[in-house]
Write a structure and sequence with these properties.
Structural class: alpha+beta
CATH topology of the largest domain: Thrombin, subunit H
Number of strands: 29
Distance between the termini: 55 Å
Number of helices: 11
Largest sheet: 7 strands, antiparallel
CATH class of the largest domain: Mainly Beta
Number of domains: 4
Mean pLDDT: 82
CATH architecture of the largest domain: Beta Barrel
């Protein structure tokens, strides 16, 4: 907001000193009045947040979840070399007296907010992930069982539905794109299970990428956010939701003044789709991209280091059909400027599936316009993957059907699990405590060399193999595993449904 400028009237020699003093006094009063108006329009801090808090608190809810956690009691069977004379002895002993499965109920708390009077509630996906039961607790301690309408792990959003006996107080979304660094904001949530708690601060930064997902574009705030605030709203000074509090940066586990919120501009379209369809459809282009550095821009003849450099094009993708080539720099997509590499995946994802979009690329020293029919992103596909063109989908990835997380063989992973330089396959980095892999005693550090008797070199290969097995109607998959004393085949059950 521009401050109103005050221009002093021209002085006249014929005006008496008394009149001059009077005129100066009036001018000073006018200046103070106008300056006050300018400050008000610049959203200065109010004397109190009490009125705003009183209005908004009833719309913010606590989310309570419970889930059954499987655990084991007793010692585990020792690892013995294959062929050891004690192997059968210990196997028989532990089959009879070994670790027993025990289940317990675990409860966790988070936050959410009401977006419709008939009971739609928004929260974070990680607040309700793996929950067997979800309960929404209103400000007056009314407890309502909640049904999961839909969730989107990529943006960490979820929508719940409750059946209230009366209309609920709802809040609406504001335009987060016009929120400025330095604007006042208010966060309300359920930190540490204490119930409705109000904190205030300012927007500290915008467009933060904290590597939590492919569409990171967080609002950073110094409003105090702690464990249990996840899923709660970040309000502007007119009481509109401009963010959903999701994460904090902390070395202590508590607030250090660096919190992150999903902007409303990202959340609102996702929430609308979840309510309408129960899931989210995203646009797909099918390219692997990397950042345009100053050196690359100079080499290609670009005036600015902007856009997304196409490293490779996926076969059969919309990008290939649109004649996109490696070496192209995507400058705009569907009328939106691609100011940096990481903005392209978000722009493409938000584009309607099937839409004929125009894009401009920098190619051979000039701008070329291309038409592309936006495809639909599958769960294992990449909108426009960051990285240097490895189309095999390396890196760490959770394979929910197997109950484990796999990583490609990188130097840090080799060092972490003390693997040989000539090791082959994929490294198991995590195992779900009650998943199919755990049932077969697969452990972090094991190597999966083959799936269905075919070598795998990336987590994406495993996803594809498991999909093929499920499509064929089979309920198990054969893994060749290296670890715990040598090579072995393991048959792992695949959950149905």
């Amino acid at each position: 907001m521009k401050l109103l400028a005050f221009v002093h009237p021209a002085a006249h020699s014929t005006i008496s000193r008394t009149f001059e003093r009077a005129a100066f006094t009036v001018a000073a009063l006018l200046f103070i009045t106008w300056a006050g108006l300018g400050a008000a329009q610049a959203k200065a801090a109010p004397e109190s947040f009490a009125d705003l808090a009183e209005k908004l608190l009833p719309s913010v809810v606590n989310i309570s979840t419970t889930q059954t956690v499987q655990g084991r009691e007793g010692p585990a069977m020792p690892q013995l070399p294959p062929g050891s004379p004690f192997e059968e002895f210990f196997k028989e002993f532990f089959d009879r007296n070994g670790p027993q499965q025990r289940s317990r109920r675990a409860t966790s708390l988070g936050s959410g907010f009401v977006i419709s009077k008939d009971g739609y509630v928004v929260t974070n996906n990680h607040v309700i992930a793996d929950a067997d039961e979800i309960t929404v607790i209103l400000q007056d301690d009314t407890r309502l069982p909640a049904e999961l309408v839909g969730r989107d792990p990529k943006t960490d959003l979820a929508v719940l539905k409750v059946k209230p006996t009366k209309d609920l107080p709802a809040v609406g979304f504001g335009d987060s794109t016009i929120a400025r660094v330095g604007d006042w904001v208010v966060a309300i949530g359920n930190p540490f299970g204490l119930g409705g708690t109000v904190t205030a601060g300012i927007i500290s930064a915008r467009g933060r990428d904290i590597n939590s997902g492919p569409y990171d574009d967080f609002i950073q705030t110094d409003a105090s956010i702690n464990k249990g605030n996840s899923g709660g709203p970040l309000f502007n000074m007119t009481g509109q939701v401009i963010g959903i509090n999701t994460a904090i940066f902390s070395t202590t586990g508590g607030s250090v003044g660096i919190g992150f919120s999903i902007p409303a501009s990202t959340a609102k379209p996702v929430i609308d789709q979840l309510i309408k369809n129960g899931s989210v459809k995203r646009g797909w282009l099918g390219v692997h991209i990397q950042a345009v550095t100053e050196e690359i821009a100079e080499t290609l003849g670009l005036k600015k280091a902007e856009g997304a450099l196409v490293a490779s094009v996926i076969k059969g993708s919309p990008a290939e059909k649109a004649k996109i080539k490696p070496g192209d720099v995507i400058i705009t997509f569907d009328g939106k400027n691609v100011t940096e590499m990481r903005s392209l995946p978000r722009i493409v994802a938000e584009t309607q599936v099937g839409k004929k979009a125009k894009m401009t690329v920098w190619r051979d020293g000039s701008v070329t316009t291309l038409d592309v029919a936006v495809g639909e992103l599958e769960d294992d596909a990449q909108v426009a993957a960051k990285g240097g063109g490895d189309s095999k989908g390396g890196g760490e990835r959770a394979i929910d059907d197997l109950g484990l997380t796999l990583s490609a063989l990188t130097d840090p992973v080799r060092s972490r699990f003390k693997l040989a330089k000539d090791a082959k396959g994929l490294v198991v980095t995590k195992v779900q405590g009650d998943g199919p892999a755990a049932e077969k005693n697969i452990r972090p550090g094991d190597l999966i060399v083959e799936v269905s008797q075919e070598e795998v070199t990336s987590p994406a290969d495993v996803v594809n193999k498991v999909r093929e097995v499920k499509k064929a109607g089979r309920k198990t998959v054969l893994l060749l595993l290296e670890g715990q004393g040598g090579m072995r085949f393991v048959v792992v059950k695949i959950p149905t449904g």
